[in-house]
């Protein structure tokens, strides 16, 4: 019987040549974005030492690979993180509706934050504040014409850039990797289980979310403009428009909370389309209202209502986060034991990070432009303005955020320094015992060599101990966020409050830390952008590419502006390829490395019965058990993993190492005795293979860690699975 091994790479692959360990390969199926490769005839053996035909599936270009695409993903990072959070909830189905609704609401606040940041730059700083001061316009031909335009018309004209930004995100939300051949005629809204064919098909839900988010974006823009115009005019049309836009936002909130948004149904599709077109019409009316001629009036200080909107949004996010945390803690009780520390709690943690990044982007952009426009004369309680300087003032909430960002950086730095030192001696002692137990020759090896292997095990196990520290850090950051939200709503900025409490001796260091935070935020955003541009050109910072590939595994179900899910194409391609090979009389060993093991396991659940009986699974460096089970407990559970094994009649081998910080055992903590078939899946391999220099080499074997290359253990596992497949046909 012919047997084909399909190797599915992990994150940040180095090409099909490296995956197959052959110098020249040829694509036999797929395209440049995702394809199947085999060794080109005449340039290396087409089969391995077991006679198994080699084939590689490369999917990484679905998630990155070009500078433009990766750069855009950096900008979409807050949206992406808010989307992943919904998959970290502990409960699926009807029981998890409240938590999913809260996640969708928090995702909508990210869109509102995006709009408010563009409004703050274009409308508040330029159209309202800068245009009112000759010193700000002096020598700037691109802005000087604004001085002769009335304030209302300036607001309407400078509202165009935020509208362009909204159109841009509308277009970005329409991207998909799904092929027309891989979907039904009726668009789907996803499913609750990974083995459901509709799990990756969220087209209908995505369309509804796009419409609602566009309504939220346009409604936020309209409310910002009308909070200036309606109180100034004090006329019925202005107040009616403001009431209509507030009602529009309320309607968007209702749609996001309705269970119907997650179900098939034309009625809810019509509702989302209706609210989108209502938002477009109200925006047109708002712009027309702003362009109306008015008696002369003067724009002074910050745009009325803008600071209140930013602070109110920030406070609303904190309230929603608190509710989500409460719901998740209650739902977490339904998880099976043993219960991991962070299991189910990843959603509020990740959304907190997403909000922090979003506010960091917003405040960094606002402070950067304000610094440029006011020519370095930012007003503070301890630093008065020079004569004639424009008092460009970002919202007070941003001042608190910059202060909080500095404190967060200090917290992260202290944690990074202290964590490796906590109970370091005990961890080293335990690791050294493992080394001496695994390697009888340890007494003959150099002490430096033993310590190197011991330290590799300690570093790998450190990630398992981060749960408590992350939970503590989250509580501290949540308290800081709550305090910042409350203070931003009350009114005083950090400098003004420090001046009131302790005078200039306290105000000056607080202002310095706040300014430092603004600088760090701008530097942080710049570094992320540069890393996004060169992530696939430099191996030193491939971590950026790794993040995208891990995050875009999950479909868009909370935020429509997250990057498209590559699995919506990868899984149908793998199932189709396996179906073709088995129909031609081949058996298939699906071999998944690192994150590729997750993709392989999901593919097994999607295969039809007549294909699965001729398929076996090999995973290595797999994060299924020690990572995904903790982070995504509702979807990657012990039940789901056992379902993978049972559908393959337990033709599954998982290779893992003590030195691997990412991968690990799948079933070891959950095995019910030696009769449990899951007990035969996990196989630990030694890393390194030995402590001494082999007779045929000049250096000792290296510590591989998470890197897996086809070695003796790998080929032995492939040979064993091939034998099991041959017995199936006997």
From TrEMBL:
Protein keywords: Membrane, Transmembrane, Transmembrane helix
Membrane keyword on record: yes
Domain of life according to the entry: Bacteria
Keyword Hydrolase in record: no
Regions that span the bilayer: 70-89, 101-123, 212-230, 236-257, 277-294, 306-330, 339-361, 397-419, 469-490, 510-536
InterPro entries: AB_hydrolase_fold
Protein name: Integral membrane protein
